[in-house]
Amino acid sequence: MTNAQDNTEGTEGTEGTEGTGSAAGGSAPSRRSLIGWGGAGLALGAAVAGGGVAMTRTGNDVDPAGSGTSGPVPFHGTHQAGIATPVQDRLHFAAFDVKTDDRAAFIQLLKDWTRAAARMTAGHTVGDGAYGGLAEAPPDDTGEALGLSPSRLTLTIGFGPSLFDKFDLADRRPDALVDLPQFPGDNLDKSRSNGDLCIQACADDPQVAVHAIRNLARIGFGTVAIRWSQLGFGKTSSTTPDAQTPRNLMGFKDGTRNIAGTETDRLKKFVWVGEGDGSDWMTGGSYLVARRIRMNIETWDRTSLQEQEDVFGRDKGEGAPVGKAKEHDEPFLKAMKPDAHVRLAHPDANHGATILRRGYSFTDGTDGLGRLEAGLFFLAYQRDVRKGFIPVQRSLSRTDALNEYIQHVSSAVFAVPPGVRDKDDWWGRTLFSKEA
After folding, report:
1. What 3-state class would DSSP assign to 289?
2. Cα–Cα distance, 137 to 55 (Å, whole number)
3. Rounded Cα–Cα distance for residues 279 and 156 (Å)
4. Mean pLDDT score of the chain, rounded to an integer?
5. HEC readout, 63-80
6. For 370, how many CA atoms within 13 A lie in the half-sphere containing its CB?
7. Distance CA 128, CA 59 (A)
8. CB of 399 closer than 8 Å to CB of 343
9. Which residues contact 50 (CB under 8 A, 6 or more apart)?
10. Helix or strand run (H / E) with residue 93
11. Res 65: pLDDT
């Protein structure tokens, strides 16, 4: 990300780029005018003590070399980016708790976050940037992404069930946003589960993803606070059909029949909330289930190859289903053991239930007993949690042979609203605007 010089004026015409800092489309004020993103005048003392008031700047400060896999992903659109988008290599996921009962302040945060997200995904610094501004105030941007390309950064927001207990939103909670049941074998850490809202940052550079979450948390200081977060690497799923399925930390390919980002019919059927699904404000959105799944790596590593392949229902070398030659070959479920993971997770075994997966591997050191704290951070998008994740997980939690080697240790569900249409739109507008 590059940092344009002060007082630079310009046009940012590419989709996914904020052209101005005001809803009216006018030129954004300089940081030295001490006007915040919300439009309110700030005294110098407040600017010094406020800890990261985010400000806008004009000018095209996208890295001109950013293209191809390192370039920007459009921020604006019917759906949020980061769902059907080709899966990036790195993840920083954060769940937040809301710390205010001031509805107007929370809405203003969502607007500020939207502008910051649009700038960061386009390769811009936040506000006036990390340097060159008022010496007596903290910089608007933390600076660790200066000089880096956008790295296909996407930022995706979701609203948890507990948010609807705030701000008189109870009647706006979608029927599909259900509290997940306690599944057999769950050992959930409440401090690492749930949340009023979440931000999913995906990028091909881990520093770009961490920078994004760090700056959104900084902008939200006093209004929201991070409840828990998770770093991920080594994507374990793909939304590009021509790519080989990545491997998880057990060395296997899983989810080889994942929905592709180009399969518009399957996305419409299984991922995007449609008109008449029960909550008009969610049309064009989706529902996200996030589960932290710890793997008993040491036990797995002492398991025979034959048993490993039987557990998954596919071979370890190619990733082909039992009796097949290639990973994308249609599996013959009856050729697998009754408790094989692929057999139990397949849509044919779950009345057609289908989800879009965007999982990542994680490792967080050791558990104090010399065992790796590692596994899969599972992310699944679907049109309705009741018809997607829940029936599949019920089937898996009962008899999946893989359960001997894994344990679900955190869990959350979120309503992911539709995309931000243009520079005057903002995250959550359809939820908070009655006329939307």
Report:
1. strand
2. 12
3. 19
4. 86
5. CCCCCHHHCCCCCCCCCC
6. 2
7. 10
8. no
9. 42, 138
10. strand 90-98
11. 33
Residues in the chain: 436
Contacts 24+ apart (CB under 8 A), 351-355: 351/391, 353/387, 353/388, 353/391, 353/392, 354/259, 354/266, 354/269, 354/270, 354/382, 354/388, 355/259, 355/270, 355/289, 355/380, 355/381, 355/382, 355/388, 355/389, 355/392
Q: Cβ distance 153 to 202 under 8 Å?
A: yes
Domains in the chain, please, with CATH?
Answer: 264-416 (3.30.70.1030)
Structure tokens at 213: 């979450």
One-letter amino acid at 67 equals S
| pLDDT tens per residue, range 298-340 | 999 999 999 999 999 999 999 999 999 999 899 999 999 999 9
User: What is the per-residue pLDDT across 27-86, written as a single tens digit (0 to 9) for each?
Assistant: 333 332 333 333 333 232 333 333 333 333 323 333 333 334 678 999 999 999 999 999
Q: What phi-psi label fits residue 363: left (phi over 0), alpha (psi between -120 and 50 degrees) or beta?
A: beta
Question: 43-52, 209-218, 263-272, 406-415 — which is least confidently predicted?
Answer: 43-52
Residue 260 has what DSSP assignment?
P
The SS3 of residue 5 is coil
Q: Please, are residues 190 and 72 in contact by the beta-carbon 8 Å criterion? A: no
Residue 95 near residue 189 (C-beta atoms within 8 A): no
Both tokens assigned to 79: 């759906």
- pTM comes to 0.85
Residue 240 pLDDT: 82
